[in-house]
Amino acid sequence: MRRFVIGQAKNIVDQTRRRLQPHHHHHHNNLRLLSLLRTPASDSTPRLFSSSSDMSASDSTSSSLPVSLDSINPKVLKCEYAVRGEIVSIAQRLQDDLKTNKDAYPFDEIIYCNIGNPQSLGQQPITFFREVLALCSHTALLDESATHGLFSSDSIDRAWKILDQIPGKATGAYSHSQGIKGLRDAIAAGIEARDGFPADPNDIFMTDGASPGVHMMMQLLISSEKDGILCPIPQYPLYSASIALHGGSLVPYYLDEASGWGLEISELKKQLEDAKSKGITVRALAVINPGNPTGQVLSEENQRDVVDFCKKEGLVLLADEVYQENVYVPDKKFHSFKKVARSMGYGEKDISLVSFQSISKGYYGECGKRGGYMEVTGFTSDVREQIYKVASVNLCSNISGQILASLVMSPPKPGDDSYDSYIAEKEGILSSLASRAKTLEEALNKLEGVTCNRAEGAMYLFPCINLPQKAIAAAEAAKTAPDAFYCKRLLNATGIVVVPGSGFRQVPGTWHFRCTILPQEDKIPAIVNRLTEFHKSFMDEFRD
Amino acid sequence: MALEYDLLNENVKKCQYAVRGELYLRASELQKEGKKIIFTNVGNPHALGQKPLTFPRQVVALCQAPFLLDDPNVGMIFPADAIARAKHYLSLTSGGLGAYSDSRGLPGVRKEVAEFIQRRDGYPSDPELIFLTDGASKGVMQILNCVIRGEGDGILVPVPQYPLYSATISLLGGSLVPYYLDESENWGLDVNNLRQSVAQARSQGISVRAMVIINPGNPTGQCLSEANLKEILRFCYNEKLVLLGDEVYQQNIYQDERPFISSKKVLMDMGSPFSKEVQLVSFHTVSKGYWGECGQRGGYFEMTNIPPRVVEEIYKVASIALSPNVSAQIFMGLMVSPPKPGDISYDQFARESKGILESLRRRAKIMTDGFNSCKNVVCNFTEGAMYSFPQIRLPPGALQAAKQAGKVPDVFYCLKLLEATGISTVPGSGFGQKEGVFHLRTTILPAEEEMPEIMDSFKKFNDEFMTQYDNGFGYSRM
Q1: At A327, is the secondary structure helix, strand, or coil?
Q2: Cα–Cα distance between A202 and A178 in angstroms, integer?
Q3: Is the separation of the CB atoms in A195 and A344 below 8 Å?
């Protein structure tokens, strides 16, 4: 009892000390903090560190301005997001130049394989979903008799149903800050149908994409750099960026490339202890399943171990499940962490779990609509009130995205007018994704010094390139991370845009890049050819 | 339990947002129990019966389902200009509404926004310095996140203010430096007040970094004069503050003495050195005006005199969220380049827009007059925006009763109002006010034909309340 009381007292003292800490505006402190917590060999490192010396040259008058590089929030400077980073800027410049200077390049077009943005590469939206959205956008359509010729009957029914759930049928009004109740009911029903365990619409918080939900949780969980979040390495850099923006510490746990990017509990334990010894309190464990960039689908057994680990260590489990409908291999299946936890007999009192879902991925690929939700379970009501409060400051997420999220979680059923065409569209997209994943994976594995784990799920391939020493030396001379050096060369030779592995982090000394499987099937052979040719000439140039 | 309340980020716990706080939650409860509630707590026009403009909805419906454009019968249901516009906006996207756009928003739409700003102000505007966001609120949060490093950084915020500012400053761990608007001078802004606020903050070791103005004001509705804006800009120049100009209500002007004039125009009119050195970020939205498309979540900010390296950093942070939602970007494009005279849809568009604005103007007057006819209520005229912010002079008996109930006086009043009439307002304490002076905020958005009844209902409740608690010993007043 006495030890507990001392522990509590210490917590209070620590918290007070944190609150009253004098603020260090001084640039040197910021740099020191940066060097402690920075990614190794990151692409934008040179730009950031050079900025402190370059600053006086290019921003000479800016130091007197209230908003200048040396006076903005250092957390902004620190955070990075390679998916739309330097390589993409170069690609965009090339793309502009291509318009007028076609002959200067060995390729005709830039192919963006850097970002999971299916509809920008020709994937078509699901017709039924867009029918419903159009009808909800312009409700006068429902009163026109001509409409019945243009729209499927079940899309008209569904639009009416949704509009009845919206007060005044006003799709232009702010909704409840958690999202329209009727739509949350549909999502909860969808979760229950998927998992076989009940879901409560009051646990659902709808957001503009899944990313804002992740930010909200980081905001709640992180009070200072003493708060750590366990993140997989490699990871989708929303996590590292969000943790940096909120001033916390990323505690890495390494996925095992040799065993198909397996997640080892022993590794989790080791990293947790390591963090503790550095004075970091780990608050949550982020798991991306299926993985991004790594594509692995966790086995149920693995998931049970993760759930037990979180329960035992008192960690919030942040389950990023946005790729739940992207599974390409017959030997793996998606199981939500909620289902796994409930099947273990764990309820609201046993585990704090936040599950993220999005409309951007799957077979629907509706990135630009910005829709998603988080299902928040295992929190006390006073914590949930805080989540609600933060959500309310932004009033609500966009209604069109909310409608789509409900459609994704309760799509057409057998017997519905649109069912057959819906299924055909869905299966067409998913089988094509699986086939492209396989084709690209095979091609990558044929390259000298390249090994690529299969994409069990998600939308990416993350090959490992064994770069020759000469290449690494050339990269260093160019003040670029070796994988970024390779990716830039690839871009300049082929027009193909991929993201260097350092943008996702990786075991130090290993090099990867992330390439999406999203270009349309007819472009894949050309991509494979160009990539193969480029790689051969690269190796010819740099082979040891 | 992994996440205990005690272990939550303190900044989250500190932050308050009354617009959807206690009153709203209580109103929602009562509504579930079957009581008729009139929600006047948030500027949400469509929720109170205002119809969306037809043209933009036609265009966006076509963009949602581009297969309609291929149908030979589409011309029977949609006017030709809506069809053309849908094709235009789809051509600006890289894959339709379902693809992430540039993280700053579609370049084509940003160009249209720049052209709009240029037409409005008479000065060139650079699309590269315009970022589209999921609602203006997100833009405000992004900029404040850039400016605030810690609690040593202060942001000048008007009192009363729209609590997005106080909530965001709390969440980001900064300090709110209040400057009081003068109710007796139509919520005017006195530069001396500003100077005092800044001096006081500095004496407490706070570095004042930015100043927020909301023009037209929320909740107060005042429209700043050109002279006022000049003073403010000069003040920002002298004190080295970045000015954050929340101009989301620029279409909502209900008097003719002070039309809307943008901070950017005044700044440019002032010429060197001001026009080249004062840092300004201006915010706008599709949620207000006569559009009222709150649920779309569409907004933008325009940066002036922000160094390129900082613009890059803001871009970087925007890219983490990938992109603002594309449908709303199209709404924004349509708002800044609406149908023109001669266009097929122009007459209908002009009729709908005019109808809404004129009705808002009438309702602003009905409400102001209605409040002023109530016992112990004094209300400044709503010059702009969407709200009425009457001062409620609570008698000592009411203050006493509030204290006994454990409620802040205006919360007490508003809860009683809600329970008696179903009118759901936001207590003035949610926006900040002078000590001992109480207000409530309501919107002017209820349907015009329902307004007389609503004002009667309010008057009945108020006058009875005042009589009940009136013991003649003096009132709360400024």
Answers
A1: strand
A2: 8
A3: no
Burial of B441 (0-12, 13-18, 19+ CB in 10 A): buried
Q: How far is B349 from chain A (nearest CA, A)?
A: 15
Q: How far is CA A425 from CA A431, A524, B86, in A?
A: 10, 20, 24
Q: What are the Cα distances from residue A244, in Å, to A75, A76, A251?
A: 6, 8, 12
**CB-based contact A327:A297 (threshold 8 Å):** yes
Which of A31-40, A419-428, B173-182, B373-382 is predicted with the least confidence, judged by mean pLDDT? A31-40
Report the greatest alpha carbon distance in chain B.
76
Interface of B with A in 162-201 (CB under 8 A): 164, 167-168, 171
Tokens of A263: 């997640």
Interface residue A438 vs chain B (CB under 8 A): no
Instruction: Give the pLDDT confidence of A490-514 residue by residue, as tens digits.
Output: 999 999 999 999 999 999 999 999 9
CB B104 within 8 A of CB B315: yes
Cβ–Cβ < 8 Å for B281, B318: no
The half-sphere exposure of B401 on its side-chain side, counting CA atoms within 13 A, is 17
Q: CA neighbours within 13 Å on the CB side: how many for A397?
A: 32
Residues in CB range of A434: below 8 A, 6 or more apart: A328, A329
Count the Cβ atoms, other than its own, within 10 Å of residue A347.
Answer: 12
Cis peptide before A293 (omega within 30 of 0): yes
What sign does the dihedral A199-A203-A204-A210 (CA atoms) show?
Answer: negative
Q: Do B307 and A65 touch (CB under 8 A)?
A: yes
Take residue A29 and report the two structure tokens written for it.
Answer: 């402190």
Please give the structure tokens belonging to residue B83.
Answer: 């069809």
Q: Are B178 and B172 in contact (CB under 8 A)?
A: no
With CB atoms and an 8 Å threshold, state whether B279 touches A67: yes
The β-bridge partners of B153 are B207
CA distance B146 to B371: 41
Q: Hey, what amino acid is at A200?
A: D
Of the listed ranges A74-83, A367-376, B48-57, the least confidently predicted one is A74-83
What is the secondary structure of A86-112 as a DSSP string?
A: HHHHHHHHHHHHHHH-GGGSS-SS-EE
Task: State both tokens at A532.
Answer: 């193969």
The b/e string for B78-90 (b: 16+ C-beta within 10 A; e otherwise) is bbebbbebbebbb
Q: Is B408 helix (H, G, I), strand (E, B) or coil?
A: coil
Among candidates A15, A174, A382 on the partner chain, residue whose Cβ is nearest the Cβ of B47: A174
d(CA B153, CA B207): 5
- Catalogue the E-assigned strands of B13-70: 38-39
- B322 vs A150: CB contact, 8 Å cut-off? no
Spatial neighbors of A101 by CB under 8 A, at least 6 apart, are: none
Q: Report the C-alpha gap between A404 and A426 in whole angstroms.
A: 15
B47 bridge partner residues? none
Spatial strand order of the sheet with A316-320 comes to: A204-207, A372-377, A353-358, A316-320, A281-288, A227-233, A249-254
Average pLDDT, chain A: 89
Q: Is B294 on the interface with A (CB under 8 A)?
A: yes
CA distance A406 to A162: 9
Residues 6+ apart with CB under 8 A from B420: B461
Q: Are A320 and A457 in contact (CB under 8 A)?
A: no
User: What pLDDT is attached to residue A64?
Assistant: 67
CA B368 to chain centre: 20
CB contact A524 to B (< 8 Å): no
pLDDT over threshold 50, residue A29: no
Cis peptide before B66 (omega within 30 of 0): no
What is d(CA B416, CA B422) in angstroms, rounded to the nearest whole number?
Answer: 9
* ipTM confidence score: 0.95
A84 and B103 within 8 Å at the Cβ level: the answer is yes
Distance CA B111, CA B127 (A): 5
